[in-house]
Amino acid sequence: MRPGKYAEQWSRLRIYQDSPLAEHFTQRYRELRPYWDPEALSRVLAGRLPLGFDQSVAVGEHRDHEANVRRIARSGEPAVVIAASGMCAGGGWSITSRRCCTMHGTM
Predict the structure, then answer these.
(1) DSSP per-residue string spanning 55-96
(2) Distances (CA, A) of 89 to 18, 31, 75, 86, 98
């Protein structure tokens, strides 16, 4: 299978796991690899790595979250943020997304 037209851009897109629970879950998932079923292991051997994003950044501490929010707000860079529903509904990321959109003229 050939990489798609935008594979290069997608490979540089940052993916932030902004949740201590997500960080913990990802670590445990990787530790359980010896127990994966044969189908999952065959995919890994074929080069498909579940949760294997080189551009993935785990944010587990509140101070790291605040620094990351400021950096993304200043830069305006595109990013995918995986966060708990409270952070998206009324917490840090909902405030940040409004601020970023206003700063960069997308709102």
Answers:
(1) TEEEE-SHHHHHHHHHHHHHH---EEEEE-HHHHHTSHHHHH
(2) 14, 31, 23, 5, 12
- Reading the block at residue 4, the tokens are 């798609």
pLDDT at 107: 47
Cβ partners under 8 Å of residue 25, min gap 6:
none
Q: State both tokens at 7.
A: 């594979």
Q: Tell me which residue has tokens 């796991």.
A: 17
On whether the CB atoms of residues 27 and 93 are closer than 8 A, the answer is no
Alpha carbon 88 to chain centroid, angstroms: 14
Q: Is the pTM of this model over 0.90?
A: no
Other beta carbons less than 10 A from residue 48's beta carbon: 10
3-class DSSP state of 36: coil
Q: What is the DSSP letter of 3?
A: P
Residue 94 near residue 100, CB atoms below 8 Å: no
